[in-house]
């Protein structure tokens, strides 16, 4: 594949070789994705020099810029897999991110959603990193639309998740109520006749409640509750917890010692 008559830049040959080499690993990742927890090896605890972190950030930004402009030679999915692995390393390096922030997340997911928009599992990471860490929910919604435009329940029975994530960002962070209504209606439609069809009524009820009461405290409470329990990331959980408490939610402990959030009826 590399030894062709057409000359290609060295960086591109290296990328293709690497993409092929990690095919097996990428396949495993696509089925066993988890958001790095605080004790994950991906979460580095070392201290880095600000100058070194900035240089590494600039180098990675250049690589991503080249990837966006370069032809893929049919390796779209493999390159998306490789870029996602790079994102996990980037996101997990806390020491460097404390120096430079998370601004490259949008470049990673621009590439991933353009090269493999049908990869459902990545959209949870997209929503969290762009909407919460970068505070760019509008961009997250734009990238998630690439998925909803090409996915279907026939392609992936879990495709409803992209509509749900999109609807939550539209509701809680963008303030696009009509968009949130449509997204939840589509999530319900796509969840029908799948193993998750019991969720269809939840999504339809959410859409109906929003039509009747766009500022429903109960709907926002349940949406932030969903965010809290579907992520492993500490920062995202803290943001969700803060929003739940500001909505009037209370923390209750179960007999098993587990923490639960409740919204008193008098608060609605």
Describe the structure in your own words:
This protein is mostly helical and 268 residues long. The chain has two domains: 1-116, no CATH class; 161-268, no CATH class. It is built from 13 helices and two strands, in the order H-H-H-H-H-H-H-H-H-H-H-H-H-E-E. The chain has a two-stranded antiparallel sheet. A hairpin with a 5-residue loop joins strand 1 and strand 2 (259-262). Helix 7 (122-133) packs antiparallel against helix 8 and helix 8 packs antiparallel against helix 9. The longest helix is centred in the N-terminal third of the chain and has 20 residues, at 50-69. The chain is globular and about 55 Å long. Mean pLDDT is 84; it is low at 1-35.
| Unreliable spans | 1-35
Mean pLDDT: 84
Largest sheet: 2 strands, antiparallel
Number of strands: 2
Helix content: 55-70%
Oligomeric state of the chains present here = single chain
The helix-and-strand class reads mainly alpha
Distance between the termini: 63 Å
Q: Work out the radius of gyration.
A: 20 Å
Q: Secondary-structure element sequence?
A: HHHHHHHHHHHHHEE
Form type: globular
Number of domains: 2
Percent of sequence in beta strands: under 5%
Question: What is the strand arrangement across the widest sheet?
Answer: 1-2
